[in-house]
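Take a record.
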Amino acid sequence: MLNLWLVTISLGGFLVVSIGLVLFALKGAVNSEDSYRVDPIPTDNDQEIKK
């Protein structure tokens, strides 16, 4: 019975560590500033130019 609990806890820990590593890798690979450069937030000046 103790073996089953140890296996369950170790697999749960492995899952948590794996998810953490994937999120860490995605955070490092994705630059959040790119979204503002590609699709900037419209300003009041932009609205006046389009009229």
About this structure: The CA atoms of residues 6 and 12 lie 10 Å apart. The chain has a mean pLDDT of 83. The radius of gyration is 23 Å. DSSP finds three helices and no strands in the chain.
